User: What shape does this take?
Amino acid sequence: MTPDTMGLTFLAFCLPFLGALVAPALTRLLGHNAAWPLALIPLAVFLHFLGFNAEVARGEIVTGGYAWVPSYNVSFSWLIDGLSLAFLLLISGIGTLIVLYAGGYLKGHRHQGRFFSFILMFMGSMLGLVASDSFLMLFVFWELTSITSFLLIGFDHAREASRRAALQALIVTGGGGLFLLAGLLLLWNVTDVTQLSLLMSFGAEVRASPFYLPLLFLILGGAFTKSAQFPFHFWLPNAMEAPTPVSAYLHSATMVKAGVYLLMRLNPVMGGTPAWETILPAFGGLTLLVGAVLAIRQTDLKLMLAYTTVASLGLLVMLTGFGSEYAVAAAALYLVAHSLFKGALFMVAGLIDHETGTRDITKLGGLRGAMPVTFLAALLAALSMAGLPPFFGFLAKEEIYVALAGGSLRAIAFTAAAVIGNGLMFAVAFAVALKPFLGKRVETPKHPHEGPALLWIGPMLLAVKGLVIGIFSAVAHALLTSPLASAIAGKPQTVTISAIPHVGAALLLSALTVAFGIVIFLVLDKARAAANRLVEDIGWGPDRGFDQVMRGLVRAAVSVNRLTQPGRMEVYMTATFAVVALALLVPPAVYGEWPRAPVWPANIPFHELAVMLLAVLGIGAVLAANNRLTAIVALGIQGFCVALLFLLFGAPDLAFTQFMIETLSVVILALAMTRLKLTPRDHRSLREKIPDAVIAIACGLGFALYLLRVTQGRFDTALTDFFNLYSKTIAHGANVVNVIIVDFRGTDTLGEIAVVMVTGLAILSIIRIRKGGKAGGEA
Amino acid sequence: MNTLIFRTVAPFLTALMVLFSLFVLLRGHNEPGGGFIGGLIAVSALAIFGIANGIAAVRKALWFHPMAISAFGLFIACLAGLLSMVFAVPFMTGLWVYPVILGVEIPLSTVMLFDAGVYLVVVGAITSIALALEAGDDL
Amino acid sequence: MELPLVLLIGVFFAAAVYLMLSKFLVRVLLGVVLLGNGVNLLLFANGRVLREVPPIIPAGHDVPVTLTANPLPQALILTAIVISFSFFAFLLVLVYRAYQDLGTDNGNEMRVAEPENDPLPPTGY
Assistant: This one.
């Protein structure tokens, strides 16, 4: 990679974020037409990455990037092979159409600029996710997609359902992100590399590692939540609360495929083991069936599509883990095909909603006259989804059956799952594409007519692309799907399937699927009723479980809070000082570090003892004081005694300071207390006094013992010597205490006088709150 | 407490104590004393003045708002530290000059400026607290 | 020399803690003052105690000629005294204002911020 393309590629990754910065201003300026200039951003990204197509098609891997945190081996580097390139093109290509579509869909919305901003941020995160070489960067982008999708799902934040869906998506995918983080760190530990490109050569070591199984579970925890695999599928249909452009983009083509991307990316490293080839197809197959059955149950166009997306993701996971060459090719084909037709169908659903005011399939009908272009787009996309020739979806489905068909029990089971799932999706595809347009015209809340170009360009282009790729499959295979399959498999592969049906087991299974699909389509109402009964019989679902967990969480938090924060001061105080006493007394008891028994010193001058005794008397008087004056005087007595002690022990500075402070304290206390109609009398009953006294004496004893132990130890005079030695010679001061305060430890003092000043300000403001309320005078 | 004698003596006492506080501040580097102690003595002086003649008199005598004095003190303390920047030495390095004024060599230093800052902060903040508490029934 | 001082410091701490365990803010305030003095004495005694020789270098000498008291804890305590006074004044004003507004100095009766039967927070979204 030349420096030029490296810089441009870096710019391509930054461009969506830069666009997100200017989008709100641009929208304020141009209104909904801002979509046109903003769509140039993903278009430019798309064209830039299209330039890599030739290299990647030759089987080369393009890497590049910049060091970011070299000490942690984190770099902003990218790895562009068949897999990332396919994703990059899908994200930027569909992104271009989605930006245009959003321009029409949210026309006149108060926060359209904000929406553009969010969707561009999401696009940038998603591009980073699929292109990151460093898997720490991959994780960062993974979480960014979770956050931006939270913003997008909750875009309509005034509605509670919207908020719930956004929070649910964030908690499920963000929680999964934590699993992923742990998994990636474990992977780092096992292999000692952080680059995906280097990881590829460590496959054997990873698979043989004793940590393989925990590693697998952690990675799957991230991938399955993101890609909505059963039983984490519930957040995806709920996310349909988002505006349709979001559903069409995030929840069909891009974000939900991030988990699939991760599995495909790690397939060469972690795949091929019995655990991988059991867990992935099992969960994938189950998700396929659950998603398909739940899709039949719905009448809301978007929800029908959402559940088929769940089913499709299940199919992709199943294929990724199935473990044969054809399965990988099938996964590659289906990945691209699904993004195209599902994106188109979602946009069609949004278009119908936009023009008629409803998405309920039972309240729609006969729109073909009013919305012919939409009808055409829907039909083309549905044909691809149904897997009919010569559409792209047909290729994917043929390859799926080629991959799955086999004689073993495992093959038969998964083939059956695929046929049932595909058949149900076939029915849903035509239900979405035909029911609203054919039949008798039904009255709708709004009078329908064809939407503006901004709205139908997207679905039309995607649907047509499905047809074009289907017809010119050889070109698509060479440029896109073969490199994609090679990257998933970890070794060169060529995809050869074409749209011309060839007789074989696969075709037979396709026919079976179509027949099953047609039957279900014809009896859709009955099938829906049956599916509804099934779900009602089960009753509880993970969606309701989510609510229960969240409510439980709040309750648990409240009870913990009530326990630890009862709002009673003496509880806090008692707990604090009990811990202080324990901390002082338990360690010496455990380690046997009690002080030696002290001897009463012989030569204590009488006046020192007298001062100390006076201090004790003062303290006793404070404790026993029953009126204000006694308390104040007693407090003054102990304070002055402390000052005298300082004076006696060679600290005149301290003595003077203490003396002044005590004077001021007494003055201030007297000023306040004379106005405070309070007595310092002890109100505690004897039953309260005894435990309090025990804690207090334990604290006092603890400090006394601690001090005794310290003074019996050796005294390190290094600091004292330093200050004594340099006080005069360097700092030119004879009063060592003062020199320490203003010179050696001047910065410390600066902080302390700042505290004194802030206290003064705080006191003044507390007083002014009252004063300001009354007269606004100066305190 | 508010006797005629007290009221008459208080201004002189206050003036003397403030003078003494300055003396304590300046000699602090070599003898017991310094900004903290000096400041506290000045506050006591003002408190006595306030008790004798009322807080309005103290405010008038101070001229500036006590918190402004305090803030100015913090400012010059910071300035004393930052002066070292001009001489490209680490923050708070003591700098000394010895100008000869009227034939007497007078040692001046950033350290002394810093101590003066401490003095002003203490005077301002604690006077402000004391005045706030003295200021009548509704505080 | 240490033993009497150690005992005195123990008494200071015990009395301070006992006062602070009270529900009544005035007593807590008195406890805070005692605690401040106790801690200062503790610091002082930690730096060892010598009598009557302040850490001041005599004129004409560059270093102290006799063994002097330890200057380091003194410097720490000097600022601590002023800070604890500011803290005490702040608490006093808080107690005072609380009493003016709430008519009590019993900490348990001050439940403006944390009402006794606080309802459950909303469990919706």
